[in-house]
Design brief:
It is a single chain. The chain is α/β, with parallel strands linked by helices and 371 residues long. The protein has three domains: 67 residues, Multidrug-efflux Transporter Regulator, Chain: A, Domain 2; 51 residues; 233 residues, Rossmann fold, CATH 3.40.50.150. 46% of the residues lie in helices and 12% in strands. The chain contains 19 helices and twelve strands. A seven-stranded mixed beta sheet has the order 6-5-4-7-8-12-9, with helices on both faces. The longest helix is centred in the first third of the chain and has 34 residues.
């Protein structure tokens, strides 16, 4: 990269007009701070970094005044901006995925001669991925007692507990004073009448004072957050103890051990690109990571749960309650399901994975973060 870039060069690289750059200069948003030997205005590396943030926020729909406040925030460095932008882009992608899934369902309904109501048609534009998969949760997602015991033990003697990304209330300890946080209206609606009170909020901006709770917990939810590191830091801010059940995205060993991602769904690895490492996650809460084994008869139908029961992945209902299948897209999903079905029928899966029958539990990357 050149040390200093001219206005014309920057316009070409960033795919914006010179007029736009001049406007940013005039309003003080991004000003080229150097000059070339010929006397032309030029951008330094620092100027380019700021411009990149401005353009990214602009393309996400932010107004120029909002952008100025964001890029001028003294408490936000370049890495924090990148994490925020990544979270916003993930949210945008999730919204698009949710809309695609909702449209596919309407197309299927129309193919069968079923007309959707005006309310259902409008809901397409409010669809979020988590809302779409959330409607399938009750049938296959529930508390796995052995994993719950690990989580509740890690909470120690905490009496007041904040459950972040609480969903329908699975894994909430029955003997503690729990407050739940859940951004999805679909998931909040599924909470039992006697469940803990639930606040509509996101992990990245918890509406509580510092050290409001003895402990904060999060179960199988961090991968849905716009900014996982920011959300974990918020948990640490509002609670004296933090317990998080998640997975190690940075470790490839378990993906090679898990036959589903190894043999049928290689696209899964692409979902983990740029995901914070386990070190990043544990550092965010100042804690440690402990492996969590998955019992062969796991009651909670998360992605890896059926590692010894392959037929379960042929069940549409099982797949719809796991975001991975929606994220990889219908073509990859269908190819994986068709391949698995053929291998189960021919006996090839059993031959490849004959060692699994002797295992009562498997280590497939799940981790309990404790601080």
């Amino acid at each position: 990269m050149e040390e200093h870039l001219t206005v014309g060069r920057v316009a070409g690289l960033a795919d914006v007009s010179v007029r736009t750059l001049h406007h940013y200069d005039e309003i003080g948003l991004v000003r080229p701070s150097e000059r070339t030997a010929a006397g032309y205005r030029a951008y330094t590396a620092g100027d380019v970094e700021r411009l990149r943030e401005v353009i990214a926020y602009r393309r996400l729909g932010f107004g120029l005044r909002e952008i100025a406040d964001l890029v001028d925030d003294p408490d936000t460095d370049a890495v924090a901006h990148l994490r925020r932008l990544r979270g916003l882009l993930r949210e945008q992608r999730d919204r698009a995925d949710g809309m695609v899934t909702a449209i596919d369902r309407e197309l299927e309904a129309r193919a069968m001669g079923i007309r959707t109501t005006p309310e259902e048609q409008l809901k397409v534009f409010g669809a979020q991925l988590y809302d779409v998969i959330g409607s399938a949760y009750p049938a296959t997602r529930c508390t796995e007692p052995r994993i719950a015991a690990r989580i509740w033990e890690a909470l120690g003697d905490a009496r007041t507990v904040l459950n972040v990304g609480a969903g329908n209330g699975s894994y909430e300890p029955p003997d503690r004073d729990v407050t739940a946080v859940e951004p999805s209206a679909v998931m909040r609606a599924q909470r039992p009448a006697d469940a803990a009170p639930c606040v509509a909020a996101a992990a990245e901006r918890l509406p509580f004072e510092d050290q409001s709770f003895d402990a904060a917990m999060a179960v199988s939810t961090v991968h849905h957050w716009r900014d996982p590191v920011a959300g974990l830091r918020e948990m640490r801010r509002v609670a004296r103890r933090v317990v998080v059940f998640t997975y190690d995205a940075s470790g490839s060993g378990w993906r090679e051990r898990f036959w589903l991602t190894r043999d049928y769904l290689p696209e899964f690895a692409g979902l983990l690109v740029d995901w914070p490492s386990l070190t990043d996650l544990t550092h965010a809460i100042g804690g440690r990571a402990e492996p969590v084994l998955i019992p062969w008869d796991c009651a909670d139908g998360f992605f890896e749960a059926h590692w010894r029961r392959p037929e379960a992945y042929l069940d549409e209902q099982v797949r719809r309650a796991v975001s991975v299948w929606t994220r990889v897209g219908p073509e990859a999903e269908q190819r994986a399901v068709d391949g698995l079905r053929a291998d189960l029928s021919s006996g090839r899966w059993a031959e490849r994975n004959r060692d699994l029958a002797a295992l009562d539990a498997a280590e497939l990357g799940l981790r309990l973060l404790v601080a």
